[in-house]
Structure formats: structure tokens, C-alpha cells
Amino acid sequence: MASVGPPVASTQPSPPSGITVLGTMPYAFMLPEIFCGTWVWILVAATSVSFQLEQGWVMYVSLSSCLISLLLLLGYILGFHKNTENWKVLDSMYHGITAILYMSAAVLQANVAIRSEFDVNSPLYYHLNCAASFFAFITTFLYILHSFRIYYH
């Protein structure tokens, strides 16, 4: 009679280290997240910031998310994810929370764009606010995709 050994634990493979991490899903979303988030920050900063409370929140969310995503990307490139078991949980929770924060920022920025449509100061600010709203919603979508992809991976 053959003895049955202990069951083999099935673990998911960890993402590769180095620059090759950018070629795997969902980590390929990280550069577009950083790029679009940077554009949100730049476009809001280029306006006159007529609505300080709303646009202040948008700038806070976009800048802090961009910096934390950059640190997370550096962690993946340098291989820090191989030292801990909970790296995927951290990644999924970060991107999920950031998606919620970005959704609130995108809605506020869209509200600012609507309210600045008939502003007599400059139609340029209206176009900048619309572009910032567009990039905020794109960034929100990217964070949602990343969060669900890492969770269901």
C-alpha cells in the first residue's frame, strides 16, 4: 500500500522582479496609472484653482496616489515582493482604496468642470478642467482594473 504524503500547497507564482514586471498583468497597469495620475495633477495645477476645496482634494489624491504607486512600482522592480507573503493583499487593498478615492476626486473634478463652463475668466480653464476630469476617470478605471485583476489572479 502506498503511503499518501502531505498535500502539496498550491501557491500562485509571484511576479517577476526587475523591469520584466511591467510586462505582466496586472502590473502593466502601473505605468499608465502613474502617467494619467500625473496628468490630472498637472492639468488641475494649470487652472486658476477657483474651487479650492474640490480641486485641493483632487490634487491631494492624484499626487499622493502617484507617489505611492511609484514607490510600489520601485518595490516590485527591486524585488521586495519576494520577501513577504502578504504583498498581493497590500497591492489589492492599496489599489482598491485608491480607486475609491480617485472616483471621489473624479466626480468632484467633473463638478468643477461643469461649474467653470460659463466662467467669464477664461475658456481655457474650462478645457483644462474637462481634460483633468477625463484623465481622473481614466485613472480611476485603471486602478479598478488593477485591483480586481490582482484580487482574482
TrEMBL record:
Every copy of the MARVEL domain together lies at 21-153
Q: Which domain of life is it from?
A: Eukaryota
Q: Which PROSITE patterns match?
A: MARVEL (PS51225)
- Any stretches that span the bilayer, and where are they? 27-51, 57-80, 92-112, 124-145
What's one Pfam family the UniProt record gives for this protein? Answer: MARVEL
Biological processes per GO annotation:
myelination
The record's subcellular location field reads: Membrane
Q: From the Swiss-Prot or TrEMBL record, what is one GO molecular function term?
A: structural constituent of myelin sheath
Q: How does it sit in the membrane?
A: Multi-pass membrane protein
- Listed GO CC annotations: membrane
The answer to keyword Glycosyltransferase applying to this record is: no
Q: Does the keyword Protein biosynthesis apply?
A: no
- Which InterPro entries does UniProt cross-reference here? MAL, Marvel, MARVEL-CKLF_proteins
Name of the molecule in the record: MALL protein
Q: Name its species.
A: Halcyon senegalensis
What gene is this protein translated from? Mall
